[in-house]
Amino acid sequence: MHPLVNIAVRAARRAGNVILRNLNRVDALTVVEKGRNDFVTEVDRSAEQEIIQTVLRSYPTHGFMAEESGTAGADAEFVWIIDPLDGTTNFLHGFPQFCVSLGIQYHGKIEHAVIYDPWRQEIFTATRGDGAYLDGRRIRVTKAKSIDGALIGTGFPYRDNVHFIDPYMAMLRAVTMRAAGVRRPGSAALDLAYVAAGRTDGFWELGLSPWDTAAGTLLIQEAGGLVGTLTGGEYNLGPHIVAGGPKVYESLLAEIGPHLTDELRA
Question: Does position 113 have pLDDT exceeding 90, yes or no?
Fold first, then answer.
């Protein structure tokens, strides 16, 4: 395992411990509503600081793009893109689908990834050119030949992206009519890890942030899958994403394409 990934795993596990220690005291937590239905807790902030401090002890010159504390050292060679608790709403309800997500960027390109599910104690890792792994075991995307009979993950538009609800519902209808099932668990980073591990065949969502997708996109690519924009363009941590095994990816684009607005094509 690459030394950077070793540190990332250590940081993710420490953040996961913070999350688990607080799982049974949710009612006592300080919860702030950043926006409508957009929550942050003291656990998010504590987990994020645990990650940053762990990294800085080994790599004091590295920079960070973190969901809660913003960007520091953005011009550094290495920048860690951090989501300390992806799925905060799930966490607050005791719904067991949340994770820690760390993407490590070198000169603007994601080179290493770690996603840690503290509830299931599962750790997904990837290094560019070296494959993707779940608990040290090599993982691959599925070999599904199309969206027919596939299991597809997604996320509903909400918060600032609720104005996409009409085109999204048209996409959802089109995908649902062909797929074996559509799932919306509520943690985009973990959803992407599941595509990499072959637990779902594909995924799409609108209105995400870089820390939601930085780690998961590398996992999928290293697992043999494809990641792109809603029009099939190169994905560069933008808000809208389509991912899956190669054939499911193309099939998803075909179903989604007729329902894109000009804004979603941009």
Answer: yes
Q: What are the tens digits of pLDDT across the range 166-225?
A: 999 999 999 999 999 999 999 999 999 999 999 999 999 999 999 999 999 999 999 999
Report in angstroms the alpha-carbon separations of 75 from 61, 78, 107, 111. 10, 8, 9, 16
The pairing of strands 202-205 and 181-183 is: unpaired
All residues at 6 or more sequence positions from 126 whose CB lies less than 8 Å from its CB, including other chains: 112, 113, 132, 133, 196, 215, 218, 219, 221, 222, 223
pLDDT in tens, 114-155: 999 999 999 999 999 999 999 999 999 999 999 999 999 999
Task: Find the Cα–Cα–Cα–Cα dihedral 9, 14, 19, 25, rounded to 10°.
Answer: 160
Q: How far is CA 147 from the centre of its chain?
A: 21
Helices and strands of the chain, counted as H and E runs: 8, 15
* DSSP β-ladder status, 70-72 and 63-66: antiparallel
Cα 118 versus chain centre, distance: 15
Q: What is the pTM of this model?
A: 0.94
Q: Are 175 and 147 in contact (CB under 8 A)?
A: yes
